[in-house]
Hints:
Elements: E1 4-18, E2 25-33, E3 43-50, H1 51-60, E4 66-79, E5 85-98, E6 104-107, E7 122-125
Parallel strand pairs: 3-5
Antiparallel strand pairs: 1-2, 1-4, 2-3, 4-5, 6-7
Amino acid sequence: xxxxxxxxxxxxxxxxxxxxxxxxxxxxxxxxxxxxxxxxxxxxxxxxxxxxxxxxxxxxxxxxxxxxxxxxxxxxxxxxxxxxxxxxxxxxxxxxxxxxxxxxxxxxxxxxxxxxxxxxxxxxxxxxxxxxxxxxxxxxxxxxxxxxxxxxxxxxxxxxxxxxxxxxxxxx
Length: 172
């Protein structure tokens, strides 16, 4: 399944167009997102929305807005005037979510031991969460004495008393 989620900034206003039959709306916009490493340049990708979503994107989102895009990624081959073919990535938007103006686009590289909740390469850095207020002091009670766990008397698995004889004369 092709599923692509991207946190990016809109760098070109959405353009609303229609198919040749005039029935289906199409919105094209360019979005920019940070590279994988801190020294990598920002990357740009074309994003396309169809139908009612296209009209909503054109009405609600503008240049400079930070958004989370969810959709499909496709590769298109384009013939360049210089005489060679170029492959360009294009995202077909299925859902779009606005981000606050204070959200920063930063890079992070995840390892297997880190949380999978923040699996995208662009992460949100907002104001630090408020510190919890300390609970009012409660009446102190003495801790319960430590009791070590009791080991079972017999192992859970008993091997058979008489193993089957090995009739194989080849040792490997």
